[in-house]
Specification:
The complex is a heterodimer. By secondary structure, chain A is of the alpha/beta class. Chain A is about 55% helix and about 15% strand. Classes of the chains: A alpha/beta, B mainly beta.
Chain lengths: ~160, ~350
């Protein structure tokens, strides 16, 4: 009798520990999602160029086409630069402007380059390198969060993207 | 890497790819892994059938005109250097462009990037579906890429010809030198895609000349090719499909090919299974061809420009009058990069 009570007690403790661990893991995952979502939703993305750039606001569809390596009909933009220094802003750019995921974008680009002879899109991992590049190339553009753009010297906001 | 860190200097852009793959037949005698270039595995380990390196150069001649060159070296072609592409591209406006020169023939979904292993998850595109003997053409193409919001579209109208002396596939299969010409080709390809779905339809018609061992066997023979592809990327599931038909009525040749593949994205890994088949009904000349291959493989994206792959292929050759290379089981492993 006593032996079976001990077994039941042990089983209850096991269940409680298991339930606690599952709840804790779910809570941590959920908090990550909530934090990421709130950051993502509150981030405004902007198109940026060098302060001296003559580039003006352009159609979002034109920007999307240029990031696919296709020519633009109206814009002065020579090259578009993919900013991957902030993974959240990068993902939001792909979602809101390109309407695709990272894998979908890379799949499309490799096909475009090796199927149609398209040029590569320049990619920058370091924000300082990106800003220096834009300053030296006034006909090129990139994107970043509005907060980052406002606090960075040498560049200007061309337009809000999302 | 598909995108790059400012490796495009001035108005010149370089890209490239390489696939280094080794394989061997583990049951049976031979496996025809690359039909167009007649790349064959046997019971010894070999790098030749699926190993290739390509380099692409694009240079602006002026604001609207660019020169595109792609050179390739394949193990199946004894590592000779061939020109895959050599054409000028004239951008008529933001939606229309005109190309003149040498290009790959866009018959099948993977025809234009058949050797770019990084662009697909197999070691090679499903073999029974990719059995054509002419891979290129010299001529003109007009491409139209309209603005469609979240959708991307491409319409490609092309015309041209190709003269293939001592054609690799036909000479290999017939055991005698075969010269093949595809002429007066006119074709159209229409593609519509967005993030999770791709549709493609293709049609080509033209004429064929063939000389076997110096004797003309076919002249001005009409031929037609048509096909559709649907690819789905639904959450982590990947479903790829392709169905094609080839007709040369004067020779009573009607060929159906198809491919169906299912993959699953597990982080950086994609396990996949594929079935491809070719069937040509027995015709008046007694010719038939009937083979299929089931493949199981795994792709691992080591980083954003490198993929490692292993694959097992089980080929079944049911051709009575035209057996290709018999039944076989083949194992291959390799690495694909883009740069």
């Amino acid at each position: 009798m006593l032996f079976s009570k001990v077994i039941i007690l042990k089983a209850n403790i096991k269940n409680r520990v298991f339930n606690f661990l599952v709840t804790a893991i779910l809570a941590v995952m959920l908090s990550h999602v909530v934090v990421n979502m709130s950051y993502a939703e509150s981030t405004t993305g902007v198109l940026v160029a060098a302060e001296s750039s003559p580039i003006q606001k352009t159609n979002i569809l034109e920007i999307r086409r240029m990031y696919l390596g296709l020519p633009s009909s109206t814009s002065l933009i020579k090259n578009t630069v993919m900013n991957i220094s902030d993974s959240t802003v990068y993902r939001m750019f792909l979602k809101n402007i390109m309407h695709m995921t990272d894998k979908g974008y890379r799949r499309k680009m490799v096909k475009r380059i090796f199927r149609q002879g398209g040029k590569k899109v320049i990619e920058m991992q370091d924000i300082t390198e990106l800003v220096n590049y834009l300053v030296e190339n006034p006909y090129d553009v990139s994107f970043m969060s509005e907060d980052m753009a406002k606090n960075t010297k040498g560049i200007k906001v061309v337009q809000v993207l999302w | 890497m598909l995108m790059h860190s400012a490796t495009s200097y001035a108005d010149i852009s370089f890209s490239g790819y390489a696939s280094i793959t080794a394989g061997k037949v583990i049951k049976g005698e031979e496996f025809l892994a690359d039909y167009p270039k007649a790349g064959v595995y046997d019971s010894d380990w070999s790098f030749s059938p699926d190993t290739s390196v390509g380099v692409q150069l694009i240079t602006d001649l002026n604001d609207d005109l660019e020169l595109v060159i792609q050179a390739i070296s394949n193990g199946a072609s004894d590592y000779d250097i061939d020109l895959d592409w050599a054409y000028v591209n004239y951008q008529l406006n933001s939606e229309f462009s005109l190309q003149a020169g040498r290009k790959r023939l866009p018959l099948y979904y993977y025809s234009e990037f058949f050797d770019v292993g990084y662009a697909y998850y197999w070691t090679r595109p499903p073999v029974d579906n990719y059995t054509w003997q002419i891979s290129h053409y010299n001529g003109l193409s007009l491409q139209y890429q309209p603005y469609l919001g979240e959708w991307d579209a491409l319409f490609n109208l092309y015309t041209g010809r190709e003269d293939s002396g001592d054609n690799e596939l036909l000479s290999f299969l017939s055991g005698a030198p075969v010269d093949e010409t595809w002429k007066n080709m006119v074709g159209i390809v229409a593609e519509l895609s967005k993030d999770w779905v791709e549709f493609r339809a293709t049609f080509m018609q033209g004429q064929l000349d063939r000389t076997v061992n110096g004797i003309v066997t076919d002249e001005d023979v009409k031929q037609k090719f048509s096909g559709v592809s649907v690819n789905l990327y639904f959450y982590d599931f990947i479903i790829l499909s392709e169905f094609n038909q080839y007709d040369r009525s004067a020779s009573d040749i009607h060929v159906d090919t198809h491919m169906l593949s299912i993959g699953y994205q597990l982080g950086d890994y994609i396990p996949h299974i594929t079935h491809s088949a070719l069937r040509q009904e027995e015709n008046l000349a007694g010719g038939d061809e009937d083979h299929n291959t089931t493949s199981i493989g795994l792709r691992w994206d080591y980083n954003k420009s490198t993929a490692v792959k292993i694959q097992y292929d089980k080929a079944e050759d049911k051709g009575v009058h035209i057996p290709v290379l018999g039944d076989s089981e083949t194992f291959s492993l390799g690495i694909d990069v883009v740069f």
